[in-house]
């Protein structure tokens, strides 16, 4: 089998800012994260290992996504009776997963936010035209008043995400109140989404011209 060399200079924060402004943020990179990305891209990774390491990367991305939500000042009394000035999440956050691969990220969000509500969107592509269209959507009734974490791990073209955002905005969600939580995406997909919804924030762990499109099948054991 002929190998395709996709080794390119990695995108850094400065590159991202110059190309996409404030619309895209990269998870701060380190050797630990690079190892997780490597394991998930390796064709020899077993399904059990894949799920284990995918969940680790998902947790890191979710934590950083939550850091982009609005916080408000608060005060609490410590067990020693001292006054502590801290922060708490603003009211009204929810998650929305794009079925099916986005469902892999739901547990990571629940692990961080115990009682958070999660909606779902199913987007399918036409086998002939490859055009994406929404088949099913279910959200909290008051989603228009909430901050939304849209969960979709692999973004190759951006078409599915654009359709999902369409549904959210049709339900009254402002695009600036949506954060896309993503593991891997291509520069072309980011550009397509940023051009379409420039006020939405995107957080990803890696920007690379080749996305690991086997993710959903491998994670759920349907490969």
From TrEMBL:
Keywords: Cytoplasm, GTP-binding, Nucleotide-binding, Nucleus
Coiled-coil stretches noted in the UniProt entry, renumbered to this chain: none
GO molecular function (one): GTP binding
A Pfam family the protein falls into: UPRTase
Cellular component terms per the entry's GO annotation: cytoplasm; nucleus
Domain of life: Eukaryota
Main location: cytoplasm
All residue ranges annotated as the Phosphoribosyltransferase domain in the record: 29-207
Stated family: Belongs to the UPRTase family.
Protein name: Uracil phosphoribosyltransferase homolog
Organism expressing this protein natively: Parnassius apollo
Taxonomic lineage from the root: Eukaryota, Metazoa, Ecdysozoa, Arthropoda, Hexapoda
């Amino acid at each position: 089998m002929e190998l395709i060399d996709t080794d390119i200079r990695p995108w850094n924060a400065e590159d991202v800012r110059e190309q996409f402004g404030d619309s895209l943020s990269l998870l701060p990179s380190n050797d630990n994260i690079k190892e997780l990305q490597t394991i998930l891209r390796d064709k020899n990774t077993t399904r059990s290992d894949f799920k284990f390491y995918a969940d680790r990367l998902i947790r890191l991305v979710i934590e950083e996504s939550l850091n982009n939500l609005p916080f408000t000042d608060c005060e609490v009394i410590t067990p020693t009776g001292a006054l502590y000035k801290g922060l708490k999440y603003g009211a009204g956050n929810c998650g929305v997963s794009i079925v099916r691969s986005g469902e892999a990220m739901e547990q990571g969000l629940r692990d961080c936010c115990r009682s958070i509500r999660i909606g779902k969107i199913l987007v399918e592509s036409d086998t002939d035209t490859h055009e994406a269209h929404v088949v099913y959507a279910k959200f909290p009734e008051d989603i228009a008043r909430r901050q939304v974490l849209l969960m979709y791990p692999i973004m190759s073209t951006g078409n599915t995400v654009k359709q999902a955002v369409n549904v959210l905005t049709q339900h009254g969600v402002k695009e600036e109140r949506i954060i896309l939580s993503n593991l891997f995406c291509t520069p072309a997909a980011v550009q397509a989404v940023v051009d379409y919804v420039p006020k939405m924030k995107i957080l990803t762990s890696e920007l690379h011209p080749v996305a690991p499109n086997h993710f959903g099948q491998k994670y759920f054991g349907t490969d």
